Amino acid sequence: DYLKFRRKVGDLDRRLGSLLGSSFDDWDTMQMRLKLFDNFDGLSDRPIIQAELEKKHRVLIKQYGEDLKIVEDHFEKNRDIVDQCLDNAPIYLNMPPIAGAIYWARSQRNRISEVMPKLLLYSNALKEVPEEFKD
Q: Model-level pTM?
C-alpha cells in the first residue's frame, strides 16, 4: 500500500511539474511568472517541483537581465527628451513636466527593483533541500 501511495504521489508531482512548466511558458512577463512561482511556493520542497522551479528560475534570471538592458536602453534613449520636456517625451500629458519626469524615472526604477527581492528570495529557497527529501 505504501509503495502504491508513493507512486501516486510521484505521479502527481510529475503532473504538477509539467503544469508548472507549461504555465510558465504561457506567461511572458516577469510579474506573471513570479506570481506563478508564488502559487507553487508551498510545493517547492517536493524534489520534482523543485527541479522544475530551478530550470524556470534560470529562465527568469535571463529574462531579468534582458529587462535590465531594455530599461537601460529606454532610459538612455529618452532621458534627454524628458529633460527638455519635448512633446514626444514618454510622460503623461496630464502631468506637469517636472512631476511627469520624476514619475517616469521612478517607473523605470520600479520596473527593475520590484522584481529583484523576489528573485533573491527564490534563489535562496531553491538552493535548500529539506532533510526528509534527501535520499
A: 0.73
